Sequence to fold (610 residues):
Amino acid sequence: MRSGDVRALARAISSVENRSPGSSDLLKALFPHTGKARVIGLTGAPGAGKSTLVDQLARFYRKHRRSVGIIAVDPTSPYTGGAILGDRIRMQEHFSDPGIYIRSMATRGSLGGLARTTADVSTVLDASGRDLVMIETVGVGQDEIDIVRLAQVTVVILVPGMGDDVQTIKAGIMEIADIFVINKSDRDGAEHVEREIRTLQSLATRLDGWTPPIIKTVATSGQGITELAAAIADYESYLHSENLVFNKSVENWQERLLEMLRDAMLDKARARFSDGHLKRMAAEVAEHKRDPYSLVEEIANAGKQ
Amino acid sequence: MRSGDVRALARAISSVENRSPGSSDLLKALFPHTGKARVIGLTGAPGAGKSTLVDQLARFYRKHRRSVGIIAVDPTSPYTGGAILGDRIRMQEHFSDPGIYIRSMATRGSLGGLARTTADVSTVLDASGRDLVMIETVGVGQDEIDIVRLAQVTVVILVPGMGDDVQTIKAGIMEIADIFVINKSDRDGAEHVEREIRTLQSLATRLDGWTPPIIKTVATSGQGITELAAAIADYESYLHSENLVFNKSVENWQERLLEMLRDAMLDKARARFSDGHLKRMAAEVAEHKRDPYSLVEEIANAGKQ
Fold:
């Protein structure tokens, strides 16, 4: 995989995604080879044109001979198989270029597994020698915040005319944006969105002293992509010049270690009872024979034995 | 609190929200008094008009002399204090009516705490004797799915003209919708949204045999609210007639018990090291001196001692 074999890469990612036996050893072996890729997170509401923007950025980096890995985190369902379909359509276009590897991931599963899986897939892409890893997520929830926490640079994509709650959306993501993009900026209302961002920015300064720039793009025509790439490079230079890279990485790892530990502890806890046992307990709670709070306390403490 | 004292209710909710000492005992004591409230979850993208719809539903139920508790899960930030502001504005209007209690909750904190807190607040409202608990969430992510899992009835709110990714949004929430609402249905495109839902519905049938109805509303004028309340009652009757209530509750509790166990395990894990210790380990990982996968394994196993 580290010699650039795309099939080996795909197999490694699948192994990590499915948490196959051996995937943990694989990650341990790959970790020392990570830390070289620049990880860029891109998030925004549905309809913001994220995929097109990511494609254009990938094209830009390919022109500059950088290899790219894309993780597209898509909501999907058994109804539509959204992620898989999207994967195919986008893969087709880039198929002839081994310098772009795209992986779509579904929001299937639960219990916060998606952030962890995205992190692990990013580790694999990083270790495989990709120069850039782009993580694209839909939505504005805690998931996205967990996912973009992996990234060195976080790009938040807005569009004009998102309706009455645009204030709310922006409020939730102001803290995580290192760069704002107003996509579809040829539409009415782009200036309005820009003014709102500036207003929110004027209310508080970031601890690291950076003021997130606002880049206007029209992803479908490629307009503004060069400026966006420059803004990404600017922010990275800023982090380096202020010696913030290491601090940011330590902060991220504190959160991630806690998340990983939580998952590991859950796996251990889950292993303590068969599905039948869990179902029986759930039935007792549903019948109000037992209160769930005491029950969980008992099981958690039983782990000490 | 159980005698209807609103101040006692507010204090109990704050205690649970802040996980104050004693809140766990409080929940244990309240649990036997729960199970009477009907819990309705309402979710949809930002701008879908959820708050207005929830207010109108609350008004409807109040007219029928049912007491209502509303949990509004809002994204917010230190920039705007969104949730608090929203709370005030909405509280003002209903202030004179102790039959409606509204609590806004921020998406602050992390590690999946929001779903758990919402569940606990819902437990308190249920135990306080509210006939209905409405949980309103923004967004389409895993958070929302975790949150609406609490509800007996889940209403998914769509609006016409959500842009190119409307397919994606609907795909992610098709499984959780017991009822679809097309709000702002006086706008162009309402029929288009309805057709798309029908198409997706035709591709698969639900395991429980229910076909989610599509209700058109204009929340600002109250249009369609009676129909929505009727659809909610219909679904509840269906669940009862098919003896599905208990099964659904057992399924929900299986997931919730696992989530609660995960959180309990994390608390235990976190207690194992001081913040300084965690930071030191994060620094070692950031420097690539240690791989995080082996590290987490070691700590998780150390819990056995």
User: Anything to note?
Assistant: Residues 76-85 of chain B have pLDDT under 50 and may be disordered. Chain B has one domain: 6-243. The CA atoms of residues 160 and 191 of chain B lie 8 Å apart. Chain B touches chain A through 92 residues (CB under 8 Å).
